[in-house]
Amino acid sequence: MALKQISVFLENKSGRLAEVTKVIGDAGINLLGMTIADTADFGILRIIVTDYEKTMKVLTENRFTAKMTDVLAIEVSDTPGGLSHIMEVFCKNNINIEYLYFTIDRRSGKHLVILKTEDPNQALAMIASNGLTALSSLE
Fold first, then answer.
1. Does residue 93 share a domain with residue 48?
2. Domain span at 57
3. Tens digits of per-residue pLDDT, 3-16?
C-alpha cells in the first residue's frame, strides 16, 4: 500500500515556511518527513504527517494550496550502496522515479527513501518481488 504525502505550494518569500509549519504544529500534527524544492517564485513543500485528513483541513482553512498524492516508503540499508541497490531494481524494471527524499522510521530507527512514481501499484508489486520492504504508514 502506498503512503500519503501532502504537497503544499508556497510563495517564495520570507516567513511562509514558518507559517505553514506553525499551522501544522498548532493543530497537534507531527511532521514525519519533509522536503522542499523552490523556484524563483514559489516552493513545493512535501510532507509526511501523522494525520493526513486533519492536515489537509487545517491547511485549507488557512488558505494554503495543498494536494495529497501517493508515494512509497522503502527501507534502505544504512550502508554504502544501499540506495544504489534500490535504484538498480527500479532501473531493471523500467520504473521511473519522479523525485525522492529520505526520512527515518521513528518506530524502528531504519532509514527510508520516500519516492514518487507514475504507477505506485506497479512499483509496489516490483518492490515485493525483489525482496525490498515498503511501509504503508510511518505512525
1. no
2. 3-70
3. 999 999 998 888 99
